[in-house]
Every structure is written in structure tokens, then in C-alpha cells.
Amino acid sequence: MSTQTLPEVDVRPDETDQSSDDTPKMFHYVRKAKIAESAVMGTHVVALCGEVFPVTRSPKPGSPVCPDCKNIYENLPPGSDGD
User: Fold this and answer.
1) Where is this region: Disordered (predicted)?
2) What does the pLDDT look like over 4-37, one tens digit per residue?
């Protein structure tokens, strides 16, 4: 009986494959009070633009922002941030 070594096979996902990437394409404006609840409990939040989703990531400086959320937020009267 003889043994042989099989070639190493890379089974990691391809970094260029976006279909399995769970990184949000853009971030949305959501009520502050709901962010922690969603992150801990897994509940869904509603963004200013109406998008409904669970919070899974935090935006980093320079992250893309939903243009609809940004427009709505910028047109809110002062002091009406919902908190």
C-alpha cells in the first residue's frame, strides 16, 4: 500500500464574489433607540426611507449613505430627530 499527498485546495470564498457578501451596499438613517434593540434582539428597524431590515453592521466613516434617508434627514425641522 502506498500513500500520496493531495494538492492543497483553497475552499475560502472568492473575495470578488459579491453574491455571498453580507456587507450592506449603503447605510440608512434609523432611530437611535432602535439600533441597540435590533442588534441585541434581532428585531427589524424601519429607516427614514422606509427600508425594513435587522441591524447587522455599524457604518464606518466614509461609508455610503442611502440618498433618500439623507435627504429626508436633512429636511427634518430642527429638534425632530425622533428621540
Assistant:
1) 1-23
2) 666 666 555 555 444 445 555 789 999 888 988 8
